[in-house]
Amino acid sequence: MNPKGALVAGPPSPRKTHVLPATVVITPCARAATALKRTKTKREQRARQLLHFMATASASSAQYTTLLNCGVRIADCGFQAHPPAIRHPQCEIQAGRFSGVRIGAMKRLRVYADTSVFGGCFDPEFQAASTAFFREVAAGRFTLVVAEVTTRELREAPERVREVLAHLPRESVETVPFSEEIGQLRDAYIEAGVLGPASVDDAEHVASASVAGADLLISWNFKHVVHFDKIAGFEAVNLVHGYKAVRIHSPREVVQP
User: Fold this and answer.
1) How many other C-beta atoms can be found within 10 angstroms of the C-beta atom of residue 253?
2) For residue 142, which of 64, 76, 166, 253 sits 20 to 30 Å off, Cα-Cα?
3) Looking at residue 257, what is its pLDDT?
4) What domains can be seen in the chain, in order of their start residue?
5) Is 60 exceeded by the pLDDT of residue 87?
6) Distance separating alpha carbons of residues 143 and 173, to the nearest angstrom
7) Distance separating alpha carbons of residues 215 and 188, to the nearest angstrom
8) CA distance 71 to 67
9) Considering the entire predicted model, what is its pTM?
10) In this structure, what DSSP letter does residue 207 have?
11) How many Å apart are CA 175 and CA 112, to the nearest integer?
12) How many angstroms separate the Cα of 197 from the Cα of each of 136, 154, 189, 203?
């Protein structure tokens, strides 16, 4: 301010120049790849933990429940060895597009049935649900998936049991041939202690359904197949070997009420 009180503008102050630090651009593809790798590692760790608990029988029920529910349930975190492929019983997302889902119609479920389901048609305790299941297969609600182990066991069954399969429409039945891949997964169940050597055929049923990518596996074998700790073991081995978890149920849970 001058003696007369007038304001005098001083020289302009220099502007501050802000230098932005170098930034690293992370593309969405890179982020997705990193997340997939991290998630896969965590899933494998959980699966191996579960196998360890089962092998040592050291897990309490609380520990077991905590392990199954940490982050994502093992039953819900199946992944393919060669992504991208995420399969779901009602739809399939592959390579960024939807397939298997049509407007106004859902994908027909592929259901693997072991030999006990065929024999159940003639057992008073299981007859209603077994018969209903094969009736729905014939009506087109399900595609029945059978494997070589199924046909091998049916050859030793009574004729009326064999006729259950023979009378189904061919277009409703999918046959899975035995392969080295099935044999390796079957043996992995035995080696992990999920099933004993005497239950090798039961292990082959689950391995066949897993390798075939069946949506469901149904059985009346509540000791070796449809049992909560066996199911957790199958899921863990599948996860370690890059197969999705097969949803295992009894026929009663699958047929329409």
Assistant:
1) 12
2) 76
3) 83
4) 29-77 (no CATH), 83-107 (no CATH), 108-257 (3.40.50.1010)
5) no
6) 6
7) 21
8) 9
9) 0.63
10) H
11) 10
12) 34, 21, 10, 9
